[in-house]
User: What shape does this take?
Amino acid sequence: MAFVEIQNLSVAFGRSPALRGINLAVERGEAVGLVGESGCGKSVTWLAALGLLPASATVRGSVLIDGTEILGAPKARLEPVRGGRIAMIFQDPAASLNPVHRIGRQIGEALGLHRGMTGQRAKAEVIRLLDQVGIPDAKNRINAYPHELSGGQNQRVMIAMALAGEPELLVADEPTTALDVTIQAQILDLLTTLRRDTGMALVLISHDLGVVSETCSRIAVMYAGRIVEEAPSAQIFTHPSHPYTRGLMGALPPLSGARRRLVAIPGSVPEAAHMPQGCAFAPRCNAATDRCAEVDPVPLPLTQDHSAACIHARPYRQAGHPSHHHAATTRERAMQ
Amino acid sequence: MSAGTADLLEARDLARSYTVRRGLLGRPTAVRAVDGISLRVARGETLGLVGESGCGKSTTARLVLGIEPPDTGSVIFDGNAMPPSGTAAWANLRRRMQMVYQDPLAALDRRLAVGVQIAEPLDIHRIGTAAEREERVAAVMAEVGLQPHHVARHPQSLSGGQRQRAVIARALVTNPDLLVCDEPISALDVSIQALVLNLLTDLQERLKMGMLFVSHDLRAVRQISQRVAVMYLGRIVEEGDPDAVLHDPAHPYTQALVSAIPHPGKTTNRVILQGDPPNPANRPTGCAFHPRCPVATATCRTETPELKPRRSDGRRVACHIAHGEAAAARAPALLETC
Assistant: This one.
């Protein structure tokens, strides 16, 4: 069983659905990327899973951590998971840190909370953590305030704080979006190193397919509250099978070759309160047929580990994989 | 640039400092945001200005438009010196040079219909009669791909792409010769970015404007520019044809910048810069990039390199090592071209 199993998770704010049935598993030590544009529900998925949404949100479905249900679980069962087994970092580190407390104290607080450490032991561990995330001169930097550090360094501090609970999974929500591209490269490199050294799993939430593809082995593309395509990173790029995934790739200006006109996705994301009938992407899709407005597509397996929620997606044979036949039969079963 | 075409815009040696005070009792220190920038934009040409936050690219955009005055240096627009900021002559010139901003929702007034806002520059510059203004607004809206019924809509009832079209329509309504775009796509989702880049490319081809495209995004800059200038800490460190600069960057900073571009479906050997972008208030001596440069030598720490054409291919670069004036401390990292 996977470390995290999210099953049929749905979230609604009032009458507006934000998530419309998410199924996602994260194995131990695995790096999964969650990609999509603003409002697609990639952050809401994890806020809902960890019980961090306001009470006004209606959350349904199941979230199993190591086989234990945490959705709607009492605080006593939830607290060791949040910040402990699963830690989360956000886009803007400056907004997540307390501006009037020294960074050492803020990390120390997390150590006290999750590992019961205090005093000199905690201080030594804070220094070790800052060192681990690449803050130079950690011994003296524990006395710095967030405003004395750069954006990249503050994100490192946030990561140190997340590591304080020795998490089995780190959920990083757009961790580099507010940072410059050279600093982004540093942080992504750090996340990869930490994962290798600690064995923790990583969920990287990003709007940037490039960022995710370099850091993660598996990618889930989200649109309008659903996962529309899921595959190992390499396959997403060699066989993008959902028109939305192809759209995201066509919209990205290339770095070489002839300058082609970019393929923009026409229209805009449907409003949650007015979800179209059938496939939510159909009104913007250049491959849509009449049937797309009628059938709400379910994820269909294309190979053993690649699925797409599009009635036009077709199984393909992977080089060196005898999975074609298997996928085709599972697909037939799914369609019945 | 061929000798025959006069430049639409020429900036010579622009510099701009701000005074900042660190802390409540800190001594005021001068921060040189722009430190000697010269650039040219011809009619029908787009110059991409790329760099990271704090490198002075937005200040440069404001300086060339005269929105704020430079401390030293000058701007020549269409052969004439730019009148001092705030004068009637300058205000009159502004109709020929317009700006597109980063965040369309912030650049538009939520309480006004977009048609009214697109007409505003015509009202300000007292161009045409009411009927002519209305006609011009309709024409420019069609030009950027807005529907006639959008004229009465308020910004919040438009999609992100439509809003940025409205901002661009407002900039184009006076038929400007120069369009300065300051990060025009960075607040937009990827699919909408593509739409706006396509639109700007089309408009420029049709209207033959000169364009200064300020961005941190090298992909976008390549897509839209005929020339690119890379800025670091208030100076241009490299300038040339976008493909030449992207595929064979000469300056170590450009090399790091190019290799840091996330690349879908590929894992490249990346040059990861050490340290943070430097503080403009505490500018390193010599080459400002030397504390982060993987190949810096003693010369780089003391002597400021000049932006000049490289002997081999004429690429303009400000680096002692690229010019062979100093031997690299170690072999520059080989970059996989992408």
Observations:
- The longest strand of chain B covers residues 7-21.
- The longest helix of chain B spans residues 190-207.
- The radius of gyration of chain B is 21 Å.
